[in-house]
Amino acid sequence: MELKDKLVSSFMAFEDHLEASSPIHGIKNQAIKTFEQKGFPSKKDEAWKYTSLKPVLKHNYSLFPKQETAIDYNDIKKYLIHDIDSYKIIFVDGKYSSYLSQTTHEGIDVCLMSAALSKTKYRLIVEHYFNKAATQDSLSSLNTAFSSEGAYIHIPKNKLVEKPIQIIHFATGNEAALMLQPRNLIVVDENSHVQIIERHQSLTDNPVLTNSVTEIFANKRAIVDYYKIQNDNQNASLIDNTFIKQKQESHASVHTFSFGGKLTRNNLNFYQNGERMDSTLKGITIIGDKQHVDHNTLVHHIEPNCESHQDYKGIFGDSATGVFNGKVVVEKEAQKTNAYQSNNNILVSDKATINSKPQLEIFADDVKCSHGCTIGQLDESAMFYMRSRGIPKKEARALLMYAFSNNVLESVKIPEIKTRINKLIANKLGVNIGFDL
Amino acid sequence: MSKYTEDDLREELKTKEYEYGFYTDIESDTLPVGLNEDIVRAISKKKEEPEWMTQWRLEAFRIWQDMEEPEWANVTYKKPDFQAISYYSAPNKKPKYNSLDEVDPELLDTFNKLGISLDEQKKLAGVAVDIVMDSVSVATTFKKTLAEKGIIFCSISEAIQEHPELVKKYIGSVVPQKDNFYAALNSAVFSDGSFCYIPKGVRCPMELSTYFRINQAGTGQFERTLVIADEGSYVSYLEGCTAPTRDENQLHAAVVELIALDNAEIKYSTVQNWYPGNAEGKGGVFNFVTKRGLCEKNAKISWTQVETGSAVTWKYPSCVLKGDNSVGEFYSIAVTNNYQQADTGTKMIHLGKNTKSTIISKGISAGKSQNSYRGLVQVHSRAENARNFSQCDSLLMGNECGAHTFPYIENKNQTSQIEHEATTSKIGEDQIFYCNQRGIDTEKAIALIVNGFSKDVLNKLPMEFAVEAQKLLEISLEGSVG
Q: Please, one GO biological process term (chain B) (predicted)?
């Protein structure tokens, strides 16, 4: 049976468990209809021109894992940013793992989507925000239909969350093939500040497909810092859909570090509904083998005096494929917008491919919008300089590549993440250098 | 029954002529509206084409029938009804006007601003022109010089008759019939166009434009151009005209194919100023053109275009850099005003080693127009040391227009170097102030700044056209300053 048919028919069984009175019941019904009508995107869709989902859709995925699996903290410690104190929301095969997690209701809500959907005290927030930022495209709709679990984070007015929140999804490989559809809702109210780290990790070689949707609402003067660490194993694929709605004077930034996974697709969408705000989208991609990473970004400038910064760096080896599809839309009212977009790539193998499509759609005249895209090689003279000073070729290359991607790390605000990413980069480039520059 | 006499016949002929009037013989040369295989055959027959050409057209027609009109371009317009067009109409021999006084004064005004001579004005507006000794003698001299060098320059119908081996070999080799919807349509029904062949090692002594302007007749709405530069030759070709062209045909679907063999160089410049519709966006020409060039070893193709007209433009002059060390260039200025829409750009396909391409695109949008750049840079895995530089700058005038950039960059080779940059801005108030303060009025100041903005491209045009194109920019943007 095709995965699409399987999903549609499973929905009926899934629907029985839903509360008919729940406010989102109607949304889910509508969403599955949208998915049924649109199906999985194919290469004929302009947004999926360079990324084919075919190879990841062929597995017979289990949609609802039968048993719960316990995993030991020591086995997964290395996947956490464990050297800092943090709130943790940890899922194992899509199920919440209470003993690995650390949630809170003191002043802020860091808890579960399933709780938020079922308890009446959250109803107001859920009704107000759930599915209000996500678009009606087929994959987000599919997630909406099946969404039952994920992280629910609500930061009320004037709170500075003193430690970061980690959201981590593990797949244990108990199922031969597993499809996960986590759904996160993050609401940050006026003047509040939060830092969030998200990671998806498969613990075995069994195929995993994650179709994740995260909705983030940054209200007036809120500051949201979001870090996505993607270093999954070779059989795990991730379709990450993130929708961020910003209100006036808010700051939102998303850093995406893609080092692993079979196929990774990041749909990152920023909607600016207010004046004087700032959006930052940055990413480092270092991949090899037959990996495929696709960054698909949208920044929608709707009102005046806003800024956006995009900076994506990519290094592609072996038969890897990189895709960057960035879009900046500046509406007629959005005068004095300052939008910047940059995509720099290095290919280090003859079989690697990079497809880049930085787009600008501008309807306002008093704006400063620019984009740049380069594809090139490491500087031969710099290589020679280092090698003449006794630095071996491999290390010299690694240093240059590190230098190339380094400026993305400058805006990372949690030092421990910087250290971790530095290690991952060194690891990925196959050298043993502590890039503590 | 009474006898049919000679007198009766004479009487009948008289009434007949009266009945149909002067237009009779022109009418009879127009095919009925609609498109089917019979029409394609009829077009081919009218042009007395050989059988292979008829078959080639029919093949294209069959392909076209299965194709759908593309919708991906960033333009909106009412789709033309392809069955409501007459696909063949013999060139109009009768002058449109008897003297310049009958011509639209607005048009004449523009001619004067462009500094076009009175004789030429008449010719361009379709006024009956007395034979001007000067230009005829010039044309004959040109013809003689070209023939001496072995250069073939004629209409494509003539070429099909006289040089079938060349046409057969190259037509459709760069833009195949099945390339796209409009290319297929053009292949099936093209009425006429130009053909140019430069023999080995010959450097064409003149800009073919000069010749063109004197000799060119109306080439119809489905134009086909084929330029072949044999090994080591050089040609500079200019198409179009800075003067505004009022054409009744709404749909223009031309195909241009350039073939540059080893070490050859082709420079192809276009100035297009078709009727863009009135200030409310009514009417205007749809310009859907397929232009492509093929470069063999060490060859170079350079496209330069100044687009100021047409209601809807959909045009991507491209280079296929097949041979090693070949070079492709694209320089473009696209100006849109009022309700005009332009979706234009280029494709650079790098197949050979050490191939280089340069793209400089300048878009200027004013009024309520939409101006898009859409380009593709594709480097194949064997195209070692490929080099591309792209720059797209947009200038916005007024807050109701839009500028869009859709660059596609596809790279499969690690030794290639690709750079792309794009900026969007408006004319700075400080720049205007600086000019005002030195006694230059705002309108002139804008013209000055726009010309500076487009200088990189204007410099690439043949001399005499650069001057006219510069004036054309000023006129196109007249009144757009708020």
A: iron-sulfur cluster assembly
- In this predicted structure, the answer to whether residue B49 has a pLDDT above a threshold of 90 is no
Give per-residue pLDDT as tens, B168-225: 999 999 998 888 898 998 898 887 778 889 999 999 887 776 444 433 444 456 888 8
Task: Extract the tokens encoding A291.
Answer: 């990996």
Q: What integer is the mean pLDDT of B286-290?
A: 87
d(CA B97, CA B129): 10
At B203, is the secondary structure helix, strand, or coil?
strand
Q: How far apart are CA B366 and CA B427, in angstroms?
A: 12
Contact call for residues B477 and B336 (beta carbons, < 8 A):
no
- pLDDT value for A191: 94
ipTM for the predicted complex comes to 0.81
Which residue ranges make up each domain of chain B?
131-476
Q: Does A47 contact B at CB distance below 8 Å?
A: no
pLDDT digits (tens, 9 = 90+) for A291-339: 999 999 999 999 999 999 999 999 998 899 999 999 999 998 898 899 9
Rg value, chain A, Cα: 21
- Rounded CA separation A259/A287 (Å): 5
Of B291, B219, B206, the C-alpha closest to B256 is B291
pTM to 2 decimal places: 0.83
Residue contact A363–B417, C-beta within 8 A: no
CA B187/CA B64 separation, integer angstroms: 9
Strand A193-202 relative to strand A178-180, pairing: unpaired
CA closest to B410 among chain A residues: A355
In a mutagenesis test of the A interface, which of B75, B376, B408, B424 is the best target, namely the one with the most A β-carbons within 10 Å?
A: B424
Which residues of A are less than 8 Å from B426 in CB distance? 365-367
- Tell if the CB–CB gap between A365 and B415 is shorter than 8 Å: no
